[in-house]
Amino acid sequence: MLATIGSAALLGIDAVPVQIEVNTGESGIPDLILVGLPDTAVKESQDRVFSALSNSALKMPPTRTTINLAPGDLRKEGAIYDLPIALGILVATGQLACDRLHHYLIAGELSLSGATRPIKGGLAMAVLARAAGRRAILLPPVAAQEAALVEGLEVYEITSLAQAARYLGGQIPLSPVTPPRRAAVAPRSEHEPDFAEIKGQHAVRRAVEIAVSGGHNLLMIGPPGSGKSMIARRIPGIMPTPSLEEYLEILRIHSAAGHTMQGEVPYLQRPARAPHHTISDVGLIGGGTLPGPGEISLAHHGVLFLDELPEFRRSALEVLRQPLEDGQVTISRSAGKVTLPCRFMLVAAMNPCPCGYLGDPRHECRCAPAQIQRYRARISGPLLDRIDLHVEAPALSITELRADAGGEASALMRERVETARQLQYIRYRGTGLACNARMPPSQLKKFCALDSTLGDLLQQAMEQLSLSARAYDRILKVARTIADLAESESIRSPHLLEAIQYRSLDRNVFY
């Protein structure tokens, strides 16, 4: 008897359909044959399925049985096929009578006791099930909670093989999982890092507010102990809440990487990633035998913080150039080619020199000019071109450190950021843009128009600083964000001058 169960495989962050075909009653020595390009984890599923069936008071087929994972040219990974294989065996052997299986997409790992275990990619599978016209999807509990965010699909939480068999056989009812409501957004904890704890650094705080308001990339330069890392850790706290569509994109990536809403992706919060400078190119960009998301994709719609920027491998930094420009990265491997979204806000920090004390009035710099040159040369000009704001974070004085009063609280900064983002939302409505940093060149003349006086001012700055055409566009976008923070309809002279001053590395301030 032949049974067919619908399931899925992950390819990047997307799910593709897989059919589990189970055929029993074949002549020959009783055995279980698994075909369809399975990896080791899939091959081992037969042992897990044997034990799960036995411990669920169900029987294995007494004859030779062939299980095919179609299509046969797609490599299958992981233990997500345990549950559909077990159910297919039950149907093929007549232990489960169900004529509704074509309505369902099923995935789940089984323990030896028959209980289900968490799997990754639940959201992507739900999107696939809806697109394929399936009525419902059966998943383990954590993945089911994610899948419930997809509208137009019934999601059932399966805790064991026995429960799935009884439900599909009509012996017990199950209620679909209720998706979390928007009101379920967790309030910000009083222990969350707050900008009120940052003393001094008013120029850096201003640059951070501009960067977040427009989604611009930011580089902080300063000696050790000036607060660069403290400031970076507080940036997610002033970012606006993502829309449900943005959050679904975020969760889809993290779900494919094995992260969950209960873990690293709290409901309706933006991601913040801070990889160590020893990270590999694949860890940063993504890849693997079956290409998966890297840190830049995990930071999609959020923040990617690179501390000690010059210490990162040159090759890793250079491959950031295209993703920063396009908002996506394409990875080609022998198993296939995938395109992953990675529209993130880059926040980087670096010392002014190898010893860190160039320009510090209280410490003497021990670096030779050639050492400083080599240190700076680790960051290429094309990469610096793609960073909109360069801001210095000077060392704090003892007086500033002893001051009882801190800076402005994150809540006040977040209010101004959300006001500026709302202006941008109205401006770009219907264009697919979310913030000024994503403005294409075709929109610059419309939304960043300059009169002749300001045009001459910008031209003079471009010539004196030897800036590129890319830097020209980015100065205009930053000036537009500064004007939004001032609630000005047009870019004025103070806005443009402030935007120009954030090209400090172009002025070679460390020479």
Automatic annotation (TrEMBL):
Transmembrane segments: none annotated. It holds the Pfam family Mg_chelatase_C. Belongs to the Mg-chelatase subunits D/I family. ComM subfamily. SMART domains: AAA (SM00382). PANTHER family: COMPETENCE PROTEIN COMM, MAGNESIUM-CHELATASE SUBUNIT CHLI. This is Competence protein ComM. Keywords: ATP-binding, Nucleotide-binding. It comes from the Bacteria. One of its GO terms (molecular function) is DNA binding. Residues 214-397 form the AAA+ ATPase domain.
